[in-house]
Amino acid sequence: MTAIETGLQDLKRQHPEWEPWLAVVQEVLRETANPQWDAAVPHRTTQQDKTPLLAGASLALEQNSVRRLLQLVIQAACRSGTAKMATLEPALRVELDVLTLFKATLRQDGNYLEQTATAVGAEPEAFQAVAALIPVPFLQACNRHWKPTIAASWLEGYCPVCGSWPAFTEVRGIERQRYFRCGRCGGEWRAHCLFCAFCGMNDHEQLVSLVPEKSGAGRMIEACKRCLGYVKTFTTLEGSAPAKVILDDLASVDLDVAAVEQGYKRPQGTGYALDITIIGNGATQFSEAGKP
Ligand SMILES: [Zn+2]
Ligand SMILES: [Zn+2]
User: Fold this and answer.
1) DSSP 149
2) Residue 156 parent element (H or E)
3) DSSP β-ladder status, 207-210 and 219-224
4) Which numbered ligand comes closest to the C-alpha of 187?
5) Which residues contact 32 (CB under 8 A, 6 or more apart)?
6) pTM summary value
7) How far is the CA of 108 from the centre of ligand 1 (A)?
8) How far is the CA of 230 from the centre of ligand 1 (A)?
9) Strand partners of residue 171
10) Ligand nearest to the CA of 226
11) How far is the CA of 81 from the centre of ligand 1 (A)?
């Protein structure tokens, strides 16, 4: 059994009530092995300062591949039997502009996703949760291809591959080297101590570590009193496989609950406003200028 299958089984055993959502996640993680997404990764050889490798990309995507993945994921969500997930069913029947939708999921454009959900009559929160998983197979392929290109000097709080905020920090091995992990592309990058990923705060009096009582050894929350952002931190021997980051993130939801109870939050959207052009397999082109 792979680490992913074991991780999914463990989560199903520990949280039987999550089964519907894990079925959706499982569908997406299975798709990360599809080489079709590797073929869509643009060529990259160098990384500019502060700019994620995905920024400015021109993507040639098969409309049918995106539609197929969207349908797979929505079908898995509808099969789950929860009332909220069942509201996604009409999205299978309407003719969605899947390439624009895909771009919105890459850019984590919450407004676009909410409007689309409302237009098809789906429950917005459920639609956004499912839509957030759609670009994962493509982003994981980007991370596989671009890993050697990531600038060694990268010190931003957001992912050098896809611009997302970190899902958590790993403190690895006896050297206790710190790495941020991305819950979307599965990427990793060095994290410095005493630094808020979200606002850059480095005054140690503004940065707090919280260890929830029942949390167990090697798990904590590192939070910033200025911007109220937080990152979960795990001590581990070695880093998780890229596709397992989503599962590690889910498995530690008790820490998210504890952080929210203390008034902290995970910022919405990406850490870097991505400008992306998507060229469909027809001649249709969808383009939008990036915001600073
Ligand atoms: Zn990433
Ligand atoms: Zn901060």
Assistant:
1) G
2) none
3) antiparallel
4) 1
5) 136, 137, 140, 141, 243
6) 0.93
7) 12
8) 17
9) 178, 235
10) 2
11) 31
Please give the distance, rounded to the nearest whole angstrom, from the Cα atom of residue 197 to the centre of ligand 1: 14
Å from CA of 160 to ligand 1 middle: 7
What CA dihedral angle connects 275, 227, 243 and 15, to 10 degrees? -140
Q: How many CA atoms lie within 13 A of 243 on its CB side?
A: 21
Are 161 and 44 spatial neighbours (Cβ–Cβ below 8 Å)? no
Mean pLDDT of 271-276: 95
pLDDT per residue over 115-136, tens digit each?
999 999 999 999 999 999 999 9
- pLDDT tens digits along 17-60: 999 999 999 999 999 999 999 999 999 999 999 999 999 999 99
- Which ligand gives the minimal distance to the CA of 167? 1
Residues 30-65 as b/e (b if ≥16 CB within 10 A, e otherwise) read ebbeeeebeebbeebeebeeeebbbbebebebebeb
Which residue, chain included where needed, has tokens 């596709």? 243
CA–CA dist 220, 239 (Å, integer): 17
Report whether 236 contacts 210 (CB < 8 A).
no
Q: Which residues on adjacent β-strands are paired with residue 44?
A: none
- Cα(188) to ligand 2 centroid in Å equals 20
CA atoms within 13 A on the CB side of 98: 21
Alpha helices in 107-196 (DSSP H): 110-120, 124-131, 136-146
| Distance from C-alpha of 241 to C-alpha of 4, rounded to nearest angstrom | 8
- Start-to-end CA distance of the chain, whole Å, equals 45
Q: Is pLDDT above 90 for 232?
A: yes
Alpha-carbon distance values, 60 to 89, 103, 277 (Å): 28, 12, 9
Q: How many CA atoms lie within 13 A of 26 on its CB side?
A: 19
The predicted pLDDT at position 212 comes to: 81
